[in-house]
Design a protein that fits this description.
Layout lengths: L3 E9 L2 E8 L8 E9 L2 H9 L8 E2 L3 E9 L11 E4 L2 E2 L5 H4 L10 E2 L7 E4 L1 H7 E3 L6 H5 L1 H14 L6 E5 L4 H12 L4 E6 L2 H9 L4 E4 L5 H7 L6 E6 L4 H9 L1 E9 L13 H6 L3 E4 L5 H12 L9 E5 L4 H9 L5 E4 L5
Parallel strand pairs: 11-12, 11-14, 12-13, 14-15, 15-16, 17-18
Antiparallel strand pairs: 1-2, 1-4, 3-5, 3-9, 3-18, 5-6, 6-10, 7-8
Helix pairs in contact: 1-12, 5-6, 5-11
Bound molecules: zinc ion (2 copies).
The site of one zinc ion has 6 residues, from helix 5.
């Protein structure tokens, strides 16, 4: 086996670089994986533009992958070389204040795994124990790589608890997150799904995946369009996945009295939003934030992929080599693609 590998490093906003570095060796409990497919993610786009709030550069970029185990660390029991695996981006400690309350996604000691845009990646021991899954033969590396965002979507869907017959509006439609939300909303029994986005290309994918109505926010007013489609009341549930202040506010303005809002797309820390307190009070509007998902939800998300209960193929817009990670991210920023697959060994 080679001793060096190629890896894409994140150096700072709008700065990434392909470097040659030694292939790391797995320590106790860890796995060394040869990355066969890594997928680009909205979080990568956010990090590319403004950095990551928890991790100072430089670090190897990318966090969604499927690959082959090439070496196992001491003490690893359930995995062996040659297995095809994927894993979530983090794992909880199981022991802190939040973990003891069953809220592992809020764990104070989360261990993360970045390093997917590289030929090889180490999976840390706690992620190996809790959040690493063997990929069955009928699932591709890229399909399995979509696990990480789906874990968070599964967690968000639990918090919002869509009931059969409800109308769900999704703001920020056509991105990977929204395409998973709309499928899970349908599985939960939503009867009408209204998708709001600004890329006609992406809205077309929303329609293909079963959106009842689409609204193009470039030329339609979001709030009044949603009201017009809901008898003037607003949607029972609004899921915001655009990740901007106006979308957070529009989500609250688009929900009916007694309805629920899930703010899914993160805003930079310190961002203040403006809400009509009277509408929230007299309208009994429930406002729900969300971050990540726990180990149980990671298992559920993996099962949704392997059972084909959700279709992740429309999220995967094509394959590029490591040299073109920045090009892939810019295509995402422009709304031209949903997710790109990075194949580190693409000839
Ligand atoms: Zn991701
Ligand atoms: Zn914890």
């Amino acid at each position: 086996m080679a001793t060096d590998m190629r890896a894409v490093f994140y150096l700072g906003p709008e700065q990434i670089q392909l470097r040659q570095v030694p292939i790391p060796a797995p320590k106790e409990g860890e796995l060394l994986v040869c990355v066969r497919a890594a997928t680009t993610c909205g979080t990568d786009v956010k990090t590319f533009r403004r950095g990551h709030p928890k991790f100072p550069p430089p670090f190897i970029f990318g966090h969604e992958f499927g690959g082959d185990i090439v070496e196992v660390g001491k003490g690893v029991k359930n995995f062996k070389p040659g297995m095809r695996v994927t894993s979530n981006v983090f794992a909880e400690c199981g022991e802190c204040f939040f973990c003891k309350k069953g809220q592992g996604n809020l764990c104070e000691n989360l261990v993360y795994n970045f390093g997917a845009f590289a030929e090889y990646n180490i999976i840390p021991a706690s992620i190996v124990r809790l959040n690493t899954f063997e990929i069955p033969a009928h699932v591709s590396y890229a399909q399995a790589a979509v696990l990480e965002p789906l874990v968070t979507v599964v967690h968000g869907q639990k918090l919002i608890a869509i009931q059969p017959g409800e109308t769900v509006a999704i703001i920020g439609a056509g991105g990977p997150i929204s395409l998973m939300h709309q499928q899970l909303a349908r599985l939960a029994g939503a009867s009408k799904i209204i998708c709001v986005g600004h890329s006609e290309k992406r809205l077309e994918i929303s329609r293909q995946l079963g959106a009842s109505e689409t609204i193009n926010s470039n030329n339609q007013d979001v709030v009044s369009s949603i009201q017009a489609l809901t008898g003037g009341y607003g949607a029972d549930v609004v899921i915001e996945c655009a990740g901007n202040k106006l979308a957070w506010e529009a989500a609250v303005d688009s929900v009916r009295k007694g309805g629920r809002v899930l703010w899914f797309g993160g805003l930079p820390g310190g961002t203040k939003i403006e809400l009509d307190a009277g509408r929230i009070h007299y309208g009994e509007i429930k406002l729900i934030g969300i971050h990540g998902g726990n180990a149980q939800e990671a298992r559920e998300a993996f099962d949704l992929i392997t059972s084909s209960a959700i279709n992740v193929d429309p999220l995967l817009s094509g394959v590029l080599p490591l040299e073109q990670v920045e090009y892939a991210l810019r295509k995402m920023i422009n709304g031209e693609v949903v997710k790109m697959i990075i194949d580190p060994f693409l000839a």
